[in-house]
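Quick one - inputs below.
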Amino acid sequence: MFNKKRAMLLLSVCLVLVVSGCGANSNEGTGGTNGEPAENGDKVTINFMHLWPEGVSAGQNKIVNQIITEYQDEHPNVAIKQEVLDNEQYKNKLKVLSASNKLPDVGVTWAAGFLQPYVEGQLFTPVDDLLSGELKDKFVAGTTEAYAIDGKTYALPLEFNIAPIYYNKSIFEKYKLEIPQTYEQLKAVVKTLSDNGVAPIALGNKDRWTGSLWYMYLADRMAGQPALSSAISGAGSFKEEGLLKAAAEVQSLVDSQAFVKGFNGLSNEEAKSEFLNGKAAMYMMGTWELPNFTTNEDIPQDFRDSVGFFKFPTVEGGKGDINSWVGGPGVGLFVGENSKVKAESKAFVEYFVTKWGEQSVTGAGVIPATKVDASNMDLPQLYIDLFNEMNQASSITLFADVQMQANAAETHLNMIQALFGKATTPEKFSEEHDTAIASGK
Amino acid sequence: MISGNIRNPNGIAESKSGMISKLGYALLYAVLAAVAALQLFPLVWLLFFSLKNNQEVFNLPPLSLPMNPRWENYAKVWSAGNIDVYFLNSVWITITATLLTVILGSLVTFAVTRMKWKGSSFVLGLFMVAMMIPVHSTLIPLFSLFSKVGLTDHPLSLILSYIAFNMPITIMILLGFYYALPKEVEEAAIIDGCSVNRMFVQIVFPMTSSVIATTAIINMIYNWNEFIFVNTFISSDAYKTLTVGVQNFIGQYTTDWGAIGATLMISILPILIMFLFLSNRIVEGIAAGSVKG
Amino acid sequence: MDKVLSNKKIIALYVLPSLLLILAIVYIPIVLTAYYGLNEWNGIGAMTFVGLDNYMALFKDATFWNSAWHSLLLALFSGLSLMLYLVVAMVLAARIKGAQLFRKIYLIPMLLSSVAIAQLWLKIYHPTNGVLNTLLESIGIANPPAWLAESSIVLFALFIPILWQYAGFYILIYYAALKNIPASLEEAAKIDGANALQIAWKIKLPLAMEVVKVTIVLAVVGSLKYFDLIFVMTDGGPSGSSEVMASYMYHEAFRAYDFGYGSAIGFFLLVICLAVTWVIRKLTATKDTIQYS
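Output:
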């Protein structure tokens, strides 16, 4: 730390030199103040960092600005100052800010494993008081729990997703294919498609969590949800017979040409476009993609009309249930523990979550984490069907990379890519998982 | 261009190998032209890219003309807010940082290569080591440094970082040129009673104009395209630069590629103009300087 | 004269501002990176001092050595490609018609940001409708590889855009260096009957040698800490087969929340750069620096 102090001195010297050397250049942009929220009288500024940029019109992004504008109108003493970054940059900045203890008042976080270090570092404040207030019983069961650590909830979820397999009805019709009810049937569908030169499944496994979904479902159907969950939590093991078989099954799917060519080098975005362009017949993805299959005008109407979905089929002799899903809450909002405007920030979060629930269904076509009465809304059938499936789910297993702690999640994702790329064996895959989870990082 | 105007530069056309050399030059031009076409391809591609929507970006071959060009991408970019602010910030931050880096770098290089003092090679070493740290290692320390001196969310944090991180490479490039400068000119200047300052400004600086243009171009490109520091140190829209504009179109689940293309296209124009301008400055530097000296 | 050129005040005036800036903005992060490397730290909570544990773990980490090998390969290829760039620069610097225009066109791609270059090459390498595979299929190659998905080729597939990205940078520097050679030398050689190749080899190359040495260091150090395109195009995958040191550092520090270990990688990367630079300087050292006479 001695170094740091001395270097600070040096820096100040430098600044003086640079500024005095070229005053003309550096004066233009220095009008505003920086950093801390300005409190002029009782005017309060809430710094809100999120990842919904104004420019992308399709999706949730409009709603954010609408909510902020409304909130500022209703609370003239509050100004919401937004900072928008894309996903990757957002995560990096959150980390850099945390290291210097400069988190925004309100920000976006992910559940479970992502949240944990921030909670342990005491950077997020518990929001349990909001849950017992106006928002009591407003959340869908199982959503806020993903943000709870040691009995306290540290963020309020906005979205809730499950991952079905979407399929292209016209391709299925063309080859006289039925929706597979069992895994054997799914394999038959894959074979027919690939024999006819159609890519069966769009998968962008450069992003790795995409492949994880496939493994998760196979594991759920073969070993059963409890076995999978306990392996992820560290109570059980990935060497459990059903889980090993699931890993082996991933490789046999790869061998049967089930996935698009070069899937391990494709991003999810690229793979999605294979499905959207009718080049691949199936695509497993979260319900956040619904707008692309229902209301997004950029996608041709014929295509949108021909998208259906099915549940991941059961495996003969497996312990899984067809109504068991992989999914969970997406992002949530946190309030900074060291925020100078904690109370105001909490009030804003409460307002935001409520409004988001009301508007995101019709405005963005996504499923919120708060309960909605969809019965009297005019919604696309695909949306309604999936919404109902969600309500009938026997269990929803949170995405593995979200559940696990950061280090273990990295191992999981890397091993997924290796498994799909046949750079590892199911045994090694399981072993690496157990080691990473046992290390507790 | 390939056949018409070949001029033999070496004056050996009169020799017996005239035919062969003519053929050789035709071949040379063919290769040069082919490579030039390849090098122009990215710009054309980017233009087409910026006129497509997501469907077309992914579905059509990259060099296909968009069926109905979507100029609205440009309108979208311009109306998505702040792009004009970002633009101005990019311009003045890039110019300031580039000017300072080149001037300060020249001073250091001059002192290290032309003046006699103990520790000059050690100091040079310090500058060289400074280019070996990966940028992501610097983010957390730099952010806490800037936040302690109150420079986060301040354009000075960008300018200082750009100067500091581009200084080593600038000095390195200048170095190779300074070593090759003839010593006689300076010696003459000093015998004439010229001060070091005057010598630097009036003799050495003009003599190195071509490398100064070179380093200026390089600095300019780096500063113009930089985004990691902007994202990390700046949070107000008022101080962000154009590279951040791209993020306006990366949503949580959807990315608007056409608009990103349009942003990239808009952002390449100013730097292209600056490049063409500066690139003309790379002429026979020493010759020009010597005449004055 | 030596007195004039060793004026301490002037040396301080020329060197100190830049030096202090570098010490503050680059050396603080370097020192802190080394320090973080001695700790177990997730970047958020409290640090635990663990001594050299991270560095010891690094020596046993196969993934790290794998990524170091990839970085070294890139450095090797970058170094070798400098020869090609030098030849191109020589052609462009020769007084042939249209050289000015060619030079400008050749350097245009270097203006593009990494974001644009990555998108371009993703479209070229796309396994099914990419430019490259469409081309290969049209000439009858039945099942061309998925360039970015196959462990055995992905690294080399990435080298091409990386080398291409930096071609303009080095051609520009070489061009300026060659233009800096007084025309009188070339004229004199011509009168003595030297041909173009002889002039290039015997006169231009030796005179540009100082610059070439510098660019070798720049290319190697730049490659060792290279990050941009690899991060966007493959993210180090599939399963680590295109991971380089800087991307591994990033993954450990920012994805796996192991900032202590990531910092150790970052600092070790600096040490490797330093060692390699030292070796290069030794190998390329010449006793007599060339002077124009």
